Amino acid sequence: MARIERALISVSDKSGLMDLAETVSGLGAEILSTGGTAKALTEGGIRVREVADYTGSPEILDGRVKTLHPKIHAGILYRRDLNDHILQMKSRGFGPIDLVVVNLYPFEATIAKEGVSFEEAIENIDIGGPCLLRASAKNFASVTVICDSADYSKVIDELKANGETTLETRKYLAQKVYQRTSEYDRAIAGYLK
Fold first, then answer.
1. Which residue positions in the chain have pLDDT lower than 70?
2. pTM, to two decimals
3. Which of 50, 107, 154, 193 is found 20 to 30 A from 122 (Cα to Cα)?
């Protein structure tokens, strides 16, 4: 895996985020972000590029559509070892996204609140987050994906030591993504049932 050129960070739970963002930024990577995460990172002194500026497509539908864009998903999913993929990316002016840090809207916590409305529960179903996580996990050969802040320190240590993460770590993190997204979907299905 090459160094991290670009990271996408969009989290509901911002605990421990600054250390990771400072490490990634210190490696010279561009950080893409959205909404509250972008604001928190900027306030923490981290240079951030809004996803809407990167894609040229504004957030729409009250924030329901932010990261669902070919420039984002192609940057995550393209295979760095396939010349055809590389040529397609270059012809479209798309760049790589090598690190994705996403934790999901707090659906389980929302439905656990007393008196929560059905509408509030539905609005706390994350769509873009699971898409980003699953795309990144699928391409773990080249992309580091973090869905749990407990893994920040492991990634920080590897980045500081080697400038990149190991394949073993990326595979471990990908497995955690599929476990987390399956739990998330089970919680939603159970609520709707």
1. 1-2, 60, 62-66
2. 0.91
3. 50
